[in-house]
Amino acid sequence: MGKKNSCLMQTVQHSEQTLKTALISKNPTLVSQYEQLDAGERRLLNKAFKPDSDLFGPITLHSESDWIISHPEPPQDFEQFFSDPSRKAPSPEKRSIYIQCIGSLGNTRIISEEYIKWLKGYCEAFFYGLTVKLLEPVPVSVTRCSFRINDNTQNLQIHAGHILRFLKKKKPRDAFCIVGITMIDLYPRDSWNFVFGQASLTDGVGIFSFARYGSDFYSSRYEGKVNKLQKVSSSDYSVFDNYYIPEVTSVLLLRSCKTLTHEIGHIFGLRHCQWLACLMQGSNHLEEADRRPLNLCPICLRKLRCAVGFNIIERYQALVKWIDDESADIPGVSRGHSREDNVNLPKPVEAFKEWKEWIIRCLAVVQK
Question: Per the UniProt entry, what is one GO biological process (predicted)?
Fold first, then answer.
């Protein structure tokens, strides 16, 4: 799993019994609910506490700044998730995830449009059985949020809390949640340097930025640096007219898919995972986020399955299909734009190929 080459190499080891209880619980109702799952689904989920499993491994810690060490929090097993009184679940009337783009995601309109479709398709496969809908993208000015130039990184940032307020007002009636995505960096309050994303579980809203996921954000050559604002008025959003957008690469798409599904996972009531290597692990920095797998461990998969109600096989098949469909949506459909807009951008899925092999191995276990 993790590469064993850095200073503090520890694994978070739990006993088989601990993992088994975290997954199945000792509550008779939840045990019998587990026993009603399809035998193949149970065979896969049981890999959580089989020490010989090559599908699910322990969490590895690489440095003191890793999330589990620096943010101690109580773990959440399946039973705690199931009985959490504040947890919100989709209902027949509220089964849609809405995605609201703020500003452009790509350097051209066509890249922006394709990118958001790729993310939509990924979320539809990941939260299989729910509908994902795209809202018309809006410029920053529409949100009326505060903004600033970061003193350290010299890049533009927008206020996450103000965006959440904007999204909450816009939330459609049939929405389970509405999430904003942007290529502009975020800050939660003046004293903070930045935040990757922020969500309000009670309101079912979230905002996530992919700005720091471009390959060049942390390089000295980063082109998103802005000259100090000439005391611009707080309502002059023209500074965002041509803000820097990183090149769309497979790694950027992979990181965006990870962040989006991790954060929407929180809105479903999944807390940070401390059981096994899992998408729902917390991450403090980019290197740690990159180590996190794209997949849920069996304990978190049972939580999401309970919230959404999908069949595990169908969900995995949908994820494989998304990776295999190199183009977004229906190929060859003219969008009524000029001819040069009709180039079908291939979806950059190279970074997902290894994960696809992993899903196929999981499907083999379920379908044995």
Answer: proteolysis
